[in-house]
Amino acid sequence: MSILKLNNITIEREGPNPEESGRASKTVVNDASLEVHSGEVHIIMGPNGSGKSTLLNALMGHPAYKITGGTMMLDGEDIIGLPPEKKASKGAFLSMQYLPGIAGVTMLSFLHRAYRLLKGSEISVPDFYKALTEKVKAAGLDESLIKRFVNVDFSGGEKKQGEIIQLLALEPKFALLDEIDSGVDIDSLTKVFAGIEQLRKEGTGFLIVTHLGTILEKVTPDRVSVMKGGTIVRTGGAELAREILTKGFENI
Asked: Which of 58, 213, 231, 250 has its CA 20 to 30 A from that of 83?
């Protein structure tokens, strides 16, 4: 069993200092700790601006943020200082909230190359396409996305389905998903979470950021953490998410 453990993560963001011509740093996540095990879903909930997305993006190396403290332990190894591609090779995957398009590059070409780089093994394009298509069909996702340019003219739901297709292809140990349920129609959302459940059964661990309590209609989390003002204030089970639905974040 694999374990992803965050210990006392502190993150700063550079921003303009109104009193000086230079730039000042601001702490946006303070002393955050949590863990995810293989096959588990750990949801981070909180109001907008609480630091949820910042945490995920900073962990995977977003240049706007600087991690000033803490460790990111994956199977006992601290990978916090590794570049994004090295973290990916260790088994970490990030799905951003706003996904860029890559004109001229098909999903198949993109994932075939990524698979070869991550796995260090050769596989022909036809063999890779056949294996990926079978996985996509089994998950009930739109297989036509495999032949389209990455995220180009994709709807919100198609982009999120595309992220699950990437997960199916690359088979990471842990997936960090930022607002995977935001701006997605109900049919696509059902397909996305069916894919998550399939990967969960195969051993992928999920750290999912959301501010929507309705996520409970699609997945039952093993752990829930509440983040407010850049700090994780409570961690519990699925009952904590249900408490939030009743009381709201202000009373947590």
From this structure: 231
